[in-house]
Amino acid sequence: MTLFVNDISQLDVAFWCPQKGLSGASWAVDVELDGHLGEDGMLFDFGEVKPWIKKSLDSGPDHTLLVPTQAPGVSITTRGEDCIIRTTQPYAMEVRGPRRAFTLLPWPAINAERMAVHYGEQLSRRPPQRIESVRLQFREEAIEGAAYGYSHGLKRHAGNCQRIAHGHRSRLLIWCDGRRQPSLEQRWAERLDARYLVDVEDIIDQTSASLTLGYRASQGEFRLTLPRERCELLPTATTVEQIATWLVAQVSHQDAPLSHVRVQAFEGIGKGARAEAILEMRAWQKATPGNQ
Ligand SMILES: Nc1nc2c(c(=O)[nH]1)N=C([C@H](O)[C@H](O)COP(=O)(O)OP(=O)(O)OP(=O)(O)O)CN2
């Protein structure tokens, strides 16, 4: 007998890609459980499946940086409770933080299929009563239009979003004067894809070629150095509300100065924020140091 539950959870991660460098992914998770029925006529109560799978993924890979330790140029050092990851190609990056902010995987590259098999096997090792095996599927959201994978960290977040390199794959919608703008959406998605979104307040050191970001949050001390050209600088925290507001300001300024601009930004699958020029842009300008 097989029991299935689709969309049981979601994973939002950053991952190191040997071709693109630091990138972001969001996967919807489906599960299939094989086993036999109990006297209650059930294989496993649906009400218990979700917390079991979600808890395991949330305390594991979710909101971490997935590091393929066999990718060329990747090296790992541990220092006390911290982990330091260095890369050389396609570019040099160094990231440091508490060990649980990283998921080290002994592979040359990260992909959704391998991740699903790995975590399915892990869950199958200690299954609940009557379950014999667990299969997972990690599904990218099917997006017809523009989408981008980015990474960031929110130092003020009390939970795992404070981790300096976690990420998302997100849709992007832009309207000018009430009309969708697919080519603008595509252009901005290409610009933001595989970029790190920086809150300028987090910059603690810089050269002409690189930026170092750092902060202390409740889980520990975080540091990240990466090439400037791989970063997009925002004057605020990189919450999805602020990303939408920043995009409205950018599009209004660079692409459509005389239009009423509306942006719907997503943070991963199925949630996000909508912002519009003029009112919200004024509020944003007011809240941005140096813009008063
Ligand atoms: N209003 C906002 N709330 C949160 C934001 C944000 O930008 N605006 N951002 C975050 C984090 O960046 C986080 O990555 C969001 O991930 P999420 O999947 O929502 O986090 P959870 O794991 O807590 O949610 P699940 O339902 O378990 O997937 C947080 N909040």
UniProtKB/TrEMBL annotation:
The similarity annotation says: Belongs to the PTPS family. QueD subfamily.
**What does UniProt list as this organism's lineage?**
Bacteria, Pseudomonadati, Pseudomonadota, Gammaproteobacteria, Oceanospirillales
Family annotation (SUPFAM superfamilies): Tetrahydrobiopterin biosynthesis enzymes-like (SSF55620)
Known pathway: Purine metabolism; 7-cyano-7-deazaguanine biosynthesis
In short, the EC number is: 4.1.2.50
Signal peptide residue numbers: none
Report the protein name in the record. Answer: 6-carboxy-5,6,7,8-tetrahydropterin synthase
What species is given as this protein's source? Modicisalibacter zincidurans
- UniProt catalytic activity: 7,8-dihydroneopterin 3'-triphosphate + H2O = 6-carboxy-5,6,7,8-tetrahydropterin + triphosphate + acetaldehyde + 2 H(+)
